[in-house]
Amino acid sequence: MSVSQDLKEFSLFRDLTPEELARVAELAVLRQYRRGETIFIEGTPREAVYFLLRGLIKVVKVDEEGREHIVAVLGKGQMFPHVGFFQDLPYPGTASAMEPTSVYAISTRSFDALLRRHPPIALKLLRVLADRIVQLQAKLQELAVYDSRERVVAFLRHFAEEQGRAGPEGVHVHLPITHAEIAQMVGLRRESVNRIWNQLRREGVIEGERDTWVIHLDRLQ
Q1: Of 56, 62, 111, 153, which is least packed with CB atoms within 10 Å of its CB?
Q2: Residue 216: how many CB atoms within 10 A of its CB?
Q3: Exposure letters 46-70 (e unless 16+ CB within 10 A, then b)
Q4: Which segments constitute the HTH crp-type domain (predicted)?
Q5: Distance (Å, rounded) from C-alpha 91 to C-alpha 104?
Q6: Before 176, cis peptide (omega within 30)?
Q7: Is the pLDDT of residue 202 over 70?
């Protein structure tokens, strides 16, 4: 596929004319990362906006005591980071590849100019950011009121809905993430995630092993 065809898969660019899409494609640089390779580091100057073509990215923040917290896991079709447009802000977290990953990078200056030239793209970006705010609000509510099992179930549901592929026997997900990393995301101890995960397997809610799972959303409670 051409760069223009790749970019058309992103909702932000889906309604552009072929000529407009070609101009955006001229700005996009394909970058590839190995598993564990860093894409950008928290606090460094924001140089580019990234569009995830394939693979998985995790975004981590470090608290005042030096502890890492995974704040997002991003998959195909998503853009990141979600902050700093028209502002000289640094990267809000550290992003790294969870598996071999390909992204298109557009420099911050070029992307800001693109938004000014194409108001429909800017409007779509506002919708993306609004959806992100809703997701963050939901996550805060889950951390505040959900018990341990409900937090793990919510994680599985969100991941399946965002990254899963529906089939007759359930939703297939590629999930190269450890129980320790899930624990970071949902505010639990790794041992608690292990226990709940095994319980969900016994109940037939999730099936599979290693990185490949089938999630039965109709059985999630």
Answers
A1: 62
A2: 16
A3: bebbbbbbebbbbbbeeeeeeeeeb
A4: 146-221
A5: 17
A6: no
A7: yes
**Distance between start and end Cα atoms, the chain:** 41
Q: Say how far apart CA 57 and CA 96 lie, in whole Å.
A: 6
- For the stretch 12-50, pLDDT in tens is 888 788 888 888 899 999 999 999 999 999 999 999 999
- Backbone φ and ψ for 86, nearest 5 degrees, come out as 65, 15
* Long-range pairs for 141-144: beta carbons < 8 A, 24 or more residues apart: 142/186, 143/186, 143/187
Domain boundaries, the chain: 3-142, 147-219
Domain 147-219 grouped into CATH 1.10.10.10: yes
What DSSP character marks residue 5? H
Torsion of CA 201, 202, 207, 212, to 10 degrees: 30
Amino acid at 170: G
Q: What is the CATH number that goes with domain 3-142?
A: 2.60.120.10
Would you state the structure tokens that stand for residue 155, as one six-digit string? 């994680």
| Top-confidence residue, 138 or 76 | 76
How many residues can be counted in the chain? 221
